[in-house]
What does this fold into?
Amino acid sequence: MTPDNDKLSNPQVTIQTIKKYDFRFQKRYGQNFLIDQHVISKILLAADISKEDTVLEIGPGIGTLTQYLAESAGKVFAVEIDEKLIPVLGDTLKEYDNVTVVNQDILKCDIQALIGEGKSCKIVANLPYYITTPIIMGLLEGNVPAESITVMIQKEVAERMDAGPGSKTYGALSLAVQYYAETYLAANVPPNCFMPRPAVGSAVIRLSKRKEPPVEVKDEKFMFRIIRAAFNERRKTLVNALKNDPVTAIPKETTEQALQALGLPLTIRGEALSLGQFAELADKISLT
Ligand code: SAM
It folds into this structure.
């Protein structure tokens, strides 16, 4: 085990490594490297990694989190898009024989093939913020063999994922994420824990994938169309939002009948409905 002081979580070691390779940060890849060991401990704790686990890390950067993952997990696969970082990772991870670095775009990666047929993994990442939502929704909606996804993301996005009805940040993303996973906000992380500092605050969130969705709905896609329409015009009543949305275009009377049957006020807004209520509403509307 490398002593913590010699690891990349020590800002001096990160600076030396960046200088040694004359590495230039690429904004387009969302490169903000962690330089705080306490934050890494919080990520590891939230992700609950043991030697039994296979971990998939998205975007290892220069290998800061990877060094700790390699010491906690049985096996680590690290998928990095920036080819300039591959030789750096070869150096910073040379002590660890349980890490496989892959130079690929995670959005194009066949994760099952990478980790091995029939195997499952825990996903851990300090995500590039510019593609947080496509990455997370891809992992949740696709057949990715992940038990849990523990990620550092923009604080505001983490709050939206974790929010419930009535909260200002509750919306289509909250419902989409919570349909597939249980959320746990593990830590808030200020900009000074990264190099360079991001313009926004960050948070660590764990998404534990559900074996079954928490609600039953006949047509999942239709429910999510309704949810999107409801929040596209979140200040309008649900009846008006579903009528005005060009995709749903549900007649006023249809939504009113469904709301009545569910015992909900006709003036209710989408932001007041729980996932269970959206599921019931979708089933009722599709019946009429
Ligand atoms: N894990 C490192 C850390 O914590 O210091 C770096 C995190 S940095 C926020 C995000 C990393 O993701 C960068 O190394 C970036 O090059 C990489 N990245 C960006 N887009 C990616 C993609 N589509 N697929 C794989 N890696 C990507």
